[in-house]
Amino acid sequence: MRFIxxxxxxxxxxxxxxxxxxxxxxxxxxxxxxPNEPIARYDVLLLWCLFVQVMLLLTRYETKEEFKLILIxxxxxxxxxxxxxxxxxxxxxxxxxxxxxxxxxxxxxxxASVASYVCQAFRRFNLRFTSFPRPxxxxxxxxxxxxxxxxxxxxxxxxxxLMGLVIVVFFKSWVYFRLEDTVYRLPLVLSFLLIAWFIWxxxxxxxxxxxxxxxHQQEGWALxxxxxxxxxxxxxxxxxxxxxxxxxxxxxxxxxxxP
Amino acid sequence: xxxxxxxxxxxxxxxxxxxxxxxxDWNLLLDEINGIDEWVQLxxxxxPRQTTTGLxxxxxxxxxxxxxxxxxxxxxxxxxxxxxxPTVELRYSYTFERQLKGGSLREWPNSHISxxxxxxxxxxHGMEVRVQVLHQDxxxxxxxxxxxxxxxxxxxxxxRIVFEKCIVKNHGIxxxxxxxxxxxxxxxxxxxxxxxxxxxxxxxKAGQLVDLVxxxxxxxxxxxxxxxxxxxxxxxxxxLPQRDVSSGSPESAATSLANKQTKTGRYDKMMQRKPKxxxxxxxxxxxxxxxxxxxxxxxxxxxxxxxxxxxxTALDFASYDxxxxxxxxxxxxxxxxxxxxxxxxxxxxxxxxDAQAAKKxxxxxxxxxxxxxVKSRVSHAAAAHVxxxxxKHDIPFAIERLDGRxxxxxxxxxxxEKAAVQKLKKDKR
Lengths: 259, 429
Prior knowledge:
With 259 residues, chain A is α+β, with helices and mostly antiparallel strands. Chain A contains nine helices and six strands. In chain A, a hairpin with a 2-residue loop joins β1 and β2.
């Protein structure tokens, strides 16, 4: 009975953490049915994201420190989007006022929503990390992952090597979370995998409601490619790394680094 | 250096000599002089030695070489010996300073006093202590406490926050002390996850008690500083007997409240993940015969004579004189019963236990006052005949297993008593 109660509590807290991502993905799904005039769809989405962000700050759902952290992911996400659109990985064909070099500004919010989830999870689950690798090593791994998103267009795609590197570096790291009066723990690598898995599931739901459409889904909805799971896995790692290292730098006792 | 030490020792001895007034003071003075002497000896041991300085070259002068041709020229350069100035001022006592883990001496840089030493001596911040070097390396000097000299400068270190006797749960999770949940400065409960290095260093297991320390305002410095030698056990709460709460006494209300609080199972919840203890094998209980307590037997027996039966309560048949009693069964004892009842004045009719003899009850029943059937010495048919007649004529009867005389006589008395009462009631009507 206690396990079921904790499971319900876990689900509830996870739902609370996912308010920002759910708001964005729901907007993506709903906006498809909105008329493109007088305001373009991409502009509506941008306005909606800004509105949601402001509301989250006003209602103190997000703190100012968390907002500053999320801004970093706006920059990271936008940079990645600019590059991907430039090399032709994907495109945003619709016209809009808020497009910069072919990338709508709301794209950065999608990456920021993942960071928002991580920051909220820190607070709501009272997360603690033990045996976390040194910040220098962790950031190096994160940088390599981020660079691979760019370099795999010309060089060998090292994502599987990087995933192996992540497993080796974070093998002894554990994440602890609290539900009511019980503290649970989980290997950090497993938590990366589980978060990526649920993001992939969410992506399937969004594509089902035609939030966006992949080429193989043009004729009809089909399951999102499993290769995307590895992309989300690596993206989640970058997000968590940056959040954890920043918290460690600020002296948060939730992070214990391996000596 | 030694000159300064000796001057200081003389001052100390003189100051202590002035306050001696009684024999006890004198004994104390001798102890203190011994301590000062020890300090002087140690200072002498650690005092730097005066050495020669400068390079010395044994290379001989060319002019002198001609004088002594036998010895070839040799160049030996001796290492320059520089007078080593001690970095630590040797003192009689030093001021102890509490650190996060362990302690140090204010006047001795890179000194370290272990946590074990601090707890053994109950050292507090500001105490004056005498020390001895235990171990010295490049990083620090480990010291051993010899004595606590003065405690007038002691002051509590408010910046060092200690969480005493924290309970370690599985996987090094610490979320409560024996007094309740861990709470930070704002009163918000929190939990601490022990790093793997500390788990290994302290060899922590679930149920052990540790002390956590941190600097105030720096929760990132929270760390384990001490592991207690004993384990935490859930306190056994025995239920108090139910008291009359309606009396309204505050003590009973407080006790019942305390019982209610202990029954919430808070400690049980904290130790939920405690591994189950092995079941102790129950020892087989040997069956023992119940010891029969021998009752005191009142007899008129004289030594060498058989035991005579003595009535505990005397049977009284005097009031039933002239009544008719029928006994059915156990005809072997006919003579015994006849002799007994002959003295009482009761008319006794003894019927056999078989059915043919028992049928005589039909003609006897009208004038019979009581019937006693010896169940173990009578047939079913005979008992049935007697029962029918007894009920028909409303005669008090007893059908009992009456193996002994006493029991039979008692049953007879009881039935005759009933008959007498019945008779009285009939007479009254």
